[in-house]
Amino acid sequence: MDSNTTNQEIQRGLKNRHIQMIALGGAIGTGLFYGSATVVKMAGPAITLSYLIGGIIIFFIMRALGEMAVDCPVSGSFSQYAYQYWGELPGFIAGWNYWFNYVVVGMAELSVVGTYMNYWYPDIPTWITALICLVVVTFINTVNVKAYGELEFWFAIIKVLAIIGMIVFGVAMIAFGIGNNGHPVGISNLWEHGGFFPNGVLGVVMSLVLVMFSFGGVELVGITAGEAENPKKQFHKQ
């Protein structure tokens, strides 16, 4: 699989802002919005340590992927790198493993969309909203790369604003009791009710599975290298 052949039909139309928001938006999704309650239950206040460990791991992974993307900006990303440096079998396995990963993740995401919509519209079956979402996502992925970049940019902006809103509301609840009948929550929950490790170190270890899942999507920045306008310049800025 020659890299020149791989990129013959690739349109380089993604700007730096598109790439940044695709990576950021990719990391904000089901794992954070829906799965965070589960990991908090597993680890308690120590979930902050779980996310710190996960963040450090992802940092080094993305540093390595970023360097390879600058050196060889192809759409196949890590699958192509595995093929190029390790051989056909590792490249084959990496590519199909990633495909299977997103089939499973995609179904999970659609199920969560259906669950959320069912809360507001209980009369609408979950599978209908999931199907509508699937059609919309499929359509977005078939448009030209510039339109796709713009759509991803604005969708990611919405998710980022949602996270900022949650942080502001959380701080207001902790400090002023907004949303809690005017009673400030404070930070005493960090050491009360079983301490910082209510479920022990095992709780932190078990939570890492879902924590790492919540970071899934950051690797998309490497995949965008094949469609970036000027990958060597843009990826140096990441």
TrEMBL record:
Protein name per the record: Amino acid permease
PANTHER family according to UniProt: AROMATIC AMINO ACID TRANSPORT PROTEIN AROP (PTHR43495:SF4), GABA PERMEASE (PTHR43495)
Domain of life: Bacteria
Signal peptide limits: none
Any GO BP annotation: amino acid transport
Family statement: Belongs to the amino acid-polyamine-organocation (APC) superfamily. Amino acid transporter (AAT) (TC 2.A.3.1) family.
Protein's membrane topology: Multi-pass membrane protein
GO CC, one annotated term: plasma membrane
Keyword Secreted carried by entry: no
Segments forming domain Amino acid permease/ SLC12A: 18-235
Biological source species: Pelosinus propionicus DSM 13327
Keywords from the UniProt entry: Amino-acid transport, Cell membrane, Membrane, Transmembrane, Transmembrane helix, Transport
